Each structure stands twice: as structure tokens, then as C-alpha cells.
Amino acid sequence: MKLEQVTTENAPKAIGPYSQGIKANGFVFCSGQIPANPATGELVKGSIAEQTRQSLSNVKGVIEAAGSSMSKIVKCTVFLKNMDDFSEMNTEYAKWFSDSPPTRAAVEVARLPKDVSIEIEAIALL
Question: Which one-letter DSSP state was computed for residue 1?
């Protein structure tokens, strides 16, 4: 099995020893994306809906750079700093996956990179 690194300017650069994405065996694995603007590196500090939108936009950048699309995502994991944000996150998330939404887990975590409120990772078919 060959592994192929995915890199794109349409998602924030990796802030550690990991890849934005990896293509392997017909799948693309997207690293967790935080609400950072890929052009400026600045964090989106608005509502959880705005932060969700930016995080999913970053996921989209990686998935599309791999040659896939949002409609081919089969699994997402959403990490929330505060589960009280779930409803607002879920409303924005639903806009991105209206037809046949992927499987998903949403969990509350103690802390995320750069102390953000949300991080989203995904697995998609190629």
C-alpha cells in the first residue's frame, strides 16, 4: 500500500509533525482542522457557527486537494471544547452535509491546539 501526503494552501499549514492529509488505499484521511484562516493563519474568534464553517472549509481544502469531495466523506469527528456549543455547531454542520451525511462522533475535550473551541477531522473516499 502506497501512502501519499496531501498538502494544500487551502487549509492551514501543519503546526507539528503531521500531514494535512494522507491518501491511502482508496481513502483520504484529513487531519483535524481548527478554525484558522489558511491565508493569514489567524484564528476565527466569532461564534461557534463561524468557527465550524472555517474548520469545515479547511477540511474541504484538504479533501479536494486529495482529489475527493465533501460528498465522499464517510466519517467525521468533531472535537468541542464545550458541549454546550453542540446545537449551534450542528446547525452549521448540517448545511455542509445535506444529502447522505457521513457518520460522525462529537465529543467534548479538555483542550485543543491553540486553545480553539472546535476541531474537525474527516475520512473520505477517493
Answer: -
Per-residue pLDDT 10s for the chain (126 aa) are: 899 999 999 999 998 899 999 999 999 999 999 999 999 999 999 999 999 999 999 999 999 999 999 999 999 999 999 999 999 999 999 999 988 999 999 999 999 999 999 999 999 999
Query: Domain boundaries in the chain?
Result: 3-125
Architecture per CATH, 3-125: 2-Layer Sandwich (3.30)
12, exposed or middle or buried, with CB in 10 Å at 0-12, 13-18, 19+? buried
- For residue 73, what are the β-bridge partners? 124
Instruction: Kindly report the three-state secondary structure assignment for every residue of 19-35.
Output: CCEEEECCEEEEEEECC
Does the predicted model carry a pTM greater than 0.70? yes
